[in-house]
Amino acid sequence: MAQAMGEGDFPFYAVQLPALKKCQQHPLVREGQAQILSLVNGGLAVTIDVGDPDNVHPKDKAPVGERLALIALANVYGHKLEFAGRVTAR
After folding, report:
1. Domain total of the chain
2. What is the dihedral of CA 74, 15, 86, 48, to 10 degrees?
3. Partner residues linked to 44 by β-bridges
4. Is the pLDDT of residue 80 over 90?
5. How confident is the prediction for the chain on average, in pLDDT?
6. pTM (predicted TM-score)
7. What distance in Å separates the CA atoms of residue 76 and residue 89, rounded to the nearest whole number?
8. Which has the closest alpha carbon to 9: 45, 36, 47, 35?
9. Phi, psi (5° rounding) for residue 15?
């Protein structure tokens, strides 16, 4: 779509859903969210380890923002830093 509009491949990042106690479908949703990594400039901030298991919106937003910032610093601004763990195909 972006190329059709003459825009090229712009960065597109998403935040993974955290672990929640009351939602059985979240593992399937997180698996679907991981498909963003197949985009040319796609990135995914993993949040399985942060947040509140009773609330999808974590009170401490700093870890989420920091993870998104690391992705952008590495992919958009060319900083040589680690911004993601190992990703394996199924």
Report:
1. 1
2. 140
3. 14
4. yes
5. 87
6. 0.82
7. 24
8. 36
9. -110, 125
The answer to whether 43 and 13 are in contact (CB under 8 A) is yes
Residue 34 belongs to what domain range?
12-75
Question: Is 84 contained in some domain?
Answer: no
* pLDDT bucket at 25, cuts 50 / 70 / 90: confident
Rounded Cα distance, 8 and 68, in Å: 21
Alpha helix ranges (H) inside the chain: 26-33, 62-75
Give a yes or no: residue 82 inside a domain.
Answer: no
Question: Which pLDDT value is given to residue 37?
Answer: 92
Question: Is the residue at 90 inside a domain?
Answer: no
Residue 2 or 40, more confident: 40
Residue 40 to residue 75: CA distance in whole angstroms: 11
Query: Rounded to a whole number, what is the distance in angstroms from the first to the last CA of the chain?
Result: 28
Reading the block at residue 46, the tokens are 């993993």
Q: Is residue 57 part of a domain?
A: yes
% pLDDT > 70, the chain:
91
